[in-house]
């Protein structure tokens, strides 16, 4: 049988023979007592080694003052040190007056921003969202499970929005926000999206920036986590959302988030939020109550290690050299084992941390469970949708970065066997 034989064109006997052949392969893997994990997008040890020099950047006899005179060992600087603002404002394409540098986690800053909106509203004079009878958020999906978990914890109703190849379904978004003032925001991972690896087109960015919303205090939560995480020498280009919002007359509409979590050390990176000066000043007033200042020594360490945007980009090319072979391996194996069989499809991202695999409808959960039974751990099926409910039960997020090449090759082969087995069961049961 040809590698690319369309399963939907095979007869019942052919499918049964193939099923028994694949089952034997599955049992062979089962006997190996595997323990492989592709569930989270973590940097591998080799990536972390690239930043070890940063731990030696500051010595006890060094000058620990920032360029504006702040003693980084002491309290103060609630919005971060100036040189960190200079570096990371360039990375995000904003001014130093439009950015706040925080602690190690952009997810923490997103959680705080949404929590503050619930407690205090998002600008002077607006009602705190938590006092409203209902708050809703738009969630382009498949998307980032931790975004959805924040909404679920804060009792914010989530509305699933389909993702297209150029970004979220704007026709649906524009219709919904124009008619419902309880829709207060949208989650976006606009560049190399989690998990599809899609970068929003200029047209999508402009439509988000200029759309008419019934809620005056509508906010775009723009999680630009992968802004410099390219896998090719011809990276995707993302239009600047803050500039687009200013041009459209809605300068306060967007909160941009990013971090160095996958640039240096995930556990001790530097996170940031960028927005209009008005929004930044409003947030700083609240931060002044919440904290007496972030870890400025860590900010200083990052600036002295990364030095400039050009040097940061050189560092990211070293990162890409480590993880691109892993992406290439996964994509190659998917093509070899699943290509042409009409049972799965996947994107080929130019950056980011994930590959998104879609099975036949109704198969993803069984595939993930079947792989887990022999020691291959994947992100839970449905995790990439609000409330953990993939309406078509087909999306599986693959995280290639952490395993070794050898482990990854084995894990993907197991996954492909499981996809084929469950697909055949689905076809034979008449579910297609």
TrEMBL record:
<feature type="coiled-coil region">
    <location>
        <begin position="12"/>
        <end position="39"/>
    </location>
</feature>
<dbReference type="GO" id="GO:0008483">
    <property type="term" value="F:transaminase activity"/>
</dbReference>
<keyword id="KW-0175">Coiled coil</keyword>
<keyword id="KW-0032">Aminotransferase</keyword>
<protein>
    <submittedName>
        <fullName>Aminotransferase</fullName>
    </submittedName>
</protein>
<dbReference type="InterPro" id="IPR015422">
    <property type="entry name" value="PyrdxlP-dep_Trfase_small"/>
</dbReference>
<dbReference type="Pfam" id="PF12897">
    <property type="entry name" value="Asp_aminotransf"/>
</dbReference>
<dbReference type="InterPro" id="IPR015421">
    <property type="entry name" value="PyrdxlP-dep_Trfase_major"/>
</dbReference>
<keyword id="KW-0808">Transferase</keyword>
<dbReference type="InterPro" id="IPR015424">
    <property type="entry name" value="PyrdxlP-dep_Trfase"/>
</dbReference>
<dbReference type="InterPro" id="IPR024551">
    <property type="entry name" value="AspAT_Ic"/>
</dbReference>
